[in-house]
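Predict structure. Chain length: 226.
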Amino acid sequence: MALIVTASRLFTPLESIPSPYIVIEDGKVTSLASQMEADIPKGKTLDFKEKVLAPAYLDIHLHGSSGHDVMEKDDAALLAIETMLASHGVAAYLPTTVTASEDRTVRALEHLGKAIRKGDQPCRSTPLGIHLEGPFISCAKRGVHPLEHLVEPSAEKLQRYWEASAGTLRMVTIAPEIPGAIETIRHARQLGIHCSLGHSNATYEEAVAGITAGANHVTHTFNAMR
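Prediction complete.
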């Protein structure tokens, strides 16, 4: 049976709909319209009366919250983080690592990869994939990332991280001017990983080279970069 959700107003990415109804079947929105233009279909109705409906948030760069870091091995850390996110309307997110030793990074990727493969859990924000921020970043623009753990990128190193995550890496922040970055960006795109330019001291020409290689995002624009 379809679930019909009604409210006073609906905001979509393109428009504002007064007196909307949304039809949900098998967990997916199959149609939506205004009650002023069409009759409400039959089904179980959930009425939010004077409330406003809007798409949930997707946070693609989150290191932690509620006193916890996503790189902690304790499952209770992700429970606290994801419960808090859900309470603020964040339906899904990319848990984001910070530069650390290779062993610690691999352990974190393994733990997060397992959590991601579990899928949706009630009353929690869903981790959709991992955002690897560091260690492929500029020494000059590293911010809080520890210098001793920064490394030059390579396809081989990225492959190890990809395998540790069991294929759940979705985004990598990388400085395109570092030796090996262009090759790594190309390999990442072959794996379906989005490459984000950030923590970078790149010139215009070096940034363009990264974009030409496949980079398609920027990490905290205008901060920790020229």
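Summary: The chain has five helices and 16 strands.
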